[in-house]
């Protein structure tokens, strides 16, 4: 069970009782359910157990399978630096971007990402964009890394990634120095569109894309 004084805080981003926890697990669950117009509630009694109740709206019509080809993807080219502490996420992003035409290098922490970005810039083979996870438990996440990255390159095209859509860094990403955002779990279409817009802010015909 969960102690009564902690229960009201369990869905708060970054709240955790674990020494190495990120506090984003239940916050991510809450975010995903609400993005699907659902609700989640919890009942708990110390030393007895906890019950989570999830309500999701029923479909109003027949289910139709949507093929991956139905999603509009935007191919591109360039060198992309990806930072995420989850090897599986890194692999998925690498595969997606590779299929779209990008070259990808992965890192697992902000320090490593900063070193790679600086080294590439100094060698004359800079990265065209950076995708950074907002929170790295026990390490340097995107929120801290972007400050140093802007010192290295004030024109850096950085995209913030997170599983919690309600985080202020995602809702006000430009305020923190990012040029775009992607919310996990993201689709191939969403990732390709965000990256395309960041790399081509004027659009294919010279029109600025918001």
Structural class given helices, strands, pairing? Answer: alpha/beta
Oligomeric state of the chains present here: single chain
- Spans of at least 5 consecutive residues whose pLDDT stays below 50 are 205-210
Alpha-carbon Rg, integer: 19 Å
Percent of residues in helices: 25-40%
The backbone outline, from C-alpha atoms, is globular
Strand order, largest beta sheet: 4-3-5-6-7
Q: Report the count of strand segments.
A: 7
Name some characteristics of this structure.
single chain, 210 residues, alpha/beta, 5-stranded parallel beta sheet, 6 helices, 7 strands, 31% helix, globular, disordered C terminus
Q: What does this protein structure show overall?
A:
With 210 residues, this protein is of the alpha/beta class. It has six helices and seven strands; from the N terminus they run αβββαβαβαβαβα. The chain has helices at residues 25-35, 87-100, 110-122, 142-152, 168-171, 188-199, and strands spanning 39-45, 49-55, 79-83, 103-107, 129-133, 158-162, 180-183. The chain is globular.
Task: Chart the SSEs and their pairings.
Blueprint: H1 25-35, E1 39-45, E2 49-55, E3 79-83, H2 87-100, E4 103-107, H3 110-122, E5 129-133, H4 142-152, E6 158-162, H5 168-171, E7 180-183, H6 188-199
Parallel strand pairs: 3-4, 3-5, 5-6, 6-7
Antiparallel strand pairs: 1-2
